[in-house]
Queue: 4 jobs
Job 1
Amino acid sequence: MIIQRLTQQDYPAVKRIYEQGLATGNSTFQTSAPEWEEWDSSHLATCRIVGMKDNEVIGWAALTPVSGRCVYAGVAEVSVYVDQSFRGKGFGTTLLEALIRESEKNNVWTLQAGIFPENTSSIRIHEALGFRQIGYREKIGKLNGVWRNTLLLERRSTVIGV
């Protein structure tokens, strides 16, 4: 897999992969994928990557700021999605590793992830790369009318903000 910067031209494939994740019911509280303009404005301009295989986007990862307050400028939330036909082959780990490196190049010192407990593969990937569970949020929100819990995981950089 080749890692490169995510651009607007990649977004149709990114959106398709995101919609695959939405269809699982275990990736996010969102129920539809936004159009490019909304997605672009909600994610950091840096720290957005795609994984390419045979010139096709097979996965993506990006960061969303957790707050507009300047004190939290180095804290961001992680999103990692892999095309359903490439899941379970290590691509999610490769994307998250690359996103961690990119975040540290861009002065992000803390990464966080809110993950449904049922999404065990995502939890394993995050924990293998240094994320630790710092919280359990019971019935934090409804997805399709059903209360869902999330685990809050965090990774503190050992090279930025130390």
Job 2
Amino acid sequence: MADLVAAIDQGTTSTRCILFDRAGTAVSSHQIEHDQIMPRAGWVEHDPLQIWQRTETVVQQSMAAAGVAASDLAAVGLTNQRETTIVWDRRTGQPYHNAIVWQDTRTAQLVGELDRSGQGDLIRERAGIPPATYFAGGKLAWLLRQVDGLRAAAESGDALFGTIDTWLLWNLTGGVDGGQHLTDVTNASRTMLMNLADLRWDPDLLELFDIPPQLLPEIVPSSHPEAFGTTRSAFGGEVVIGGVLGDQHAAMVGQVCLDEGEAKNTYGTGNFLLVNTGTEIVRSSHGLLSTVCYQFGDEPARYALEGSIAVTGSAIQWLRDQLGIVASAAEADRLARTVPDTDGLYFVPAFSGLFAPYWRADARGAIVGMTRFHTAAHLARATLESICYSSYDLVKAMEADSGITMTSLKVDGGVTKSDLTMQLQADVLGLDVIRPVVPETTALGAGYAAGLAVGVWDTAEDFRANWHEDRRWFSQIDADARAAGIAHWHKAVERTLDWVED
């Protein structure tokens, strides 16, 4: 039996395909960025057709680099940016509108009205998450209201809704020629439309958002040999699609956070801290989300508490693309190293409001503490520090909800390539920060879910043998310096609030 698995990792800024062997080692990889479309302030969109085309390209290039064919692959796993919303015509495969990205804030008025009316409590109770611009249900409701002809197409069954996993699955399995309209439990749990307890679309939530049920994909487990079908495009032959997980849930699997109490923090476009809560749905009182962690086959679903930050790694992209003060993330790191500290400069990149633990859609980004002395280097360092301070807020909320005091933190994602940022994170937290040998654990988790479905790995516990520590950072500052920095960070956060009045 072939023991290579292909993992498609469709992220907020790029798409990659990585081939993994049974030891969890990357055999080949290819990655391409896609366009970030920003029609107006607070709106963020992607071109679904471009994402699909680049998915095909990265698959083909990764397979070519490894010199393999479809017959050499045991299974395909898929992981994706969550909450990003697409509606398309099942007859033509054409989207009705650009994808509305998870960072987009156009639904602020809609979700605000839900909360003010008291209906937000129903969403919290059934879906485990607050009414927020972050989630897919509000974006779908907005599309149904704003796109001419879409509601009629939805009610007739001609329109299909999906997050990115559903869109790619539909195209991979045939598209207009019999494509499968599916989503897994982790992605469905990010819509405000699924009942966390029974893992089904909730009729009351659909009525609340006025969403026709025939528009929605079928919800299936995250790993299953028969649930997702087989590839009919991109791979040049049929390969079983064995697993689908939202990106942060995939990272939990890749970091082997399979037992209750195990946690990880992913540093990507945003930051996402999750702790496994086992088969129990734990409700947060400190601004975190209750979500599905994963579901393998016919086993009960595992749940998690999650803290989400909208803008972390994308703040570095902002330095590159909007300000032009660096040419790459690596250059931002080098620039930040040229100064010993920020000399009192703080940057809160609340470009899409503030997510956990604040949940303030009215917030906007702020740079505070500036003097004429400050340079681009200080801003670059403040940007890296903002990632670490935001994660501090999540860790403290997680400790308060779980009753567990963390002694170390597993980290993964692209930003962990920055040794400076990881040292700053250890300093801010006062904890050991541990990076695995394979930092891109999101793709690895998707590969694990796919391989588990077809027998490449016998049980999920087999993944533990593949996890190895690459580097560990220890705090290098004293408690007084840490406390002072955190206090100033919270003062900076206060300056971002109540900025958007509508």
Job 3
Amino acid sequence: MALPEVLKRVPFPVIASPMFIISTPKLVIAQCKAGVVGSMPALNARPAAQLDEWLAEITESLDAHNRANPDSPAAPFAINQIVHKSNDRLDHDLEMCVKYKVPLIITSLGAREDVNQAVHAYGGVVMHDIINNKFAHKAIEKGADGLIAVAAGAGGHAGTTSAFALVQEIREWFDGPVALSGSIAHGRSILAARAMGADFAYIGSAFIATDEARAVDAYKQMIVDSSSADILYSSKFTGVHGNYLRGSIVASGLDPDALPQSDASKMNFGADRKKPWKDIWGCGQGIGAIDRVLPAAERVAQIKREYAQARQRLLG
């Protein structure tokens, strides 16, 4: 199956993942102008009314860029919607996305036919993130257009399945858009993802260490100073297993080697959500490739160069 038109307009095969707290219009706009899909969670806009303002800012900024640069237009942008039952903002946030005709919607923690239908009604595309083949089938059955395969080593709520195995199983039955997430922070990894059968690489942690990211300097520096050995996989903080920087757990006064498990039923994405672990920092295993904090445009330029070099080496 050919890619939907909106995804054909992505100049470089990367979707920047939406990161809780960290991704805001400033980062999204910089990513899109640099030629990759920029994204953010709808829930990062607080209060909810701010989402209207942010979507206007992103839309107007990218439209202005495209008018000024008709030969090198920006990539489309994406908004992440948490579809979990505790998200009491979903209806409002989806209404805002419909209002601005957000080109790409990324859905997480559940798949809902009504959400997919609302996006399709204005011509948008839905990609759903999954951690295994079972959830991949469910997402497509409920009307998602594409899949984000969140494999072992990804930041945030990652799965445990090898990227090789997960993409292979999906491609046995699905020929639509697939983005691969998991330890991708270098151009070589993007080329490898495409060789495996993914259409796009899905990159998050590399963009935390950028000037535009809404993360404290200590978080950005810890990414620069850390490697895959410094990533811990735990369900303690949200009820769902995810990858976190060990150093941030220690700094919060906890023993990273003695963390209890948490109950997934306690997940809460509603307006009353508390953030007791706001200083526990999510991160993926690919950060060994990140050696400094850069503007987002320079980070994209860097991975483009690495990708070109890897491709040239492969082709001889």
Job 4
Amino acid sequence: MLKAPIKGIGIPDKGTPQGGILSPLLSNIILNDLDQWVAHQYELFETNHHYSRVDGKYRALRKTNLKTGFIVRYADDFKILTDNHKDAYKWYHAVKLYLKDRLKLDISKEKSKVINLRKNSSEFLGFKLKVHKKASKYVTYTKIKEKKKTAIVEKAREHIDRIYRNPTVENMIHFNQFVLGSHNYFKYATRVSAEFREIDFRIHRMMHNRLGRIGFKKVIPTNASKTYKKFFKNKYKTWSFKEFHLYPLQDIKFSIPYGFSQNKTLFTPEGRKLVHKELEKEININIQKLLTSKLPGRSVEYIDNRLSRYSMVQGKCEITGVFLTAEEVHCHHYKPTHLGGNDDYNNLRIVNKLIHKLIHATKEETILNYLKILQLNSRQLNKLNEFRRACNLESI
């Protein structure tokens, strides 16, 4: 992969290409050393006294000459956060020397700097961060980086133009996927609602001119799909065409970025126990929801075995391996009832509802549509075809 030819350059003899898929992996391997070094300078510093609470340990460490600091890293992009000017410059020079002497890496002079977040903003992973005084303490305000906002606007215009030239369901689905993806990434910015209202304002005229010209109407969706209602609970007007609703860019609110425990990892026995414990809680919550769901015409055997199967597969789709909430669960008869199949536990399979539709789909247009949405890999497709063959349907 390192020697893969680059268009216009040829075979590189040093480093990885910008945006190469191998780059984040190599960054994590190399810079894990930096993570551990920084953490053991303060956060994981070993003390003679055992503290029952971590905040008690930090209060004690602040009375020493140690420099306060916590690292946040994503691939090769990282920040070290501290609470005073003196420690900030200590960290800057210490990390610069550590990377050069220990890891043989140079930092970017343009991007690497000490920033006082009370006076200036700092950019990280597409977000713009700054702290403001609120009562007696400071709180972080986050916005979307200007460059990213412009990129969202340009991408939205491309999708709108594509719909205008070819108003197919496929193109409208792609627009909705783009909106949902943008929302899911930036919903942790505290000013996300205002930011997306601005983005919507910047493309509003284009949507009015292009979509209005081909029969779209701006309405408050009253007959929206379950998926639409799941993500968009506010009654915003949105562009609709033949009962298909485009997702409204401005309909988003801030989501609290809850912290996570770094002890929850699949790479240690203790971490796996914690992961499985959390998964069991999530499974039990969804089992309770499945218990209350109404299934008219189904046998008691089917209802009981569906729950047992969901619990056995740990709530995951038996084709994609993705965890399913109660709303996403469909229970498939491996051997259909019309071919002699029954409601026995061994004849039931837990699958995503879109996967279920694809298993039984016969029209080529429908099959292609679901394949584009689901983006199955070869292993998942082989499994799907196994299910189709059990239903006496042709492989895809």
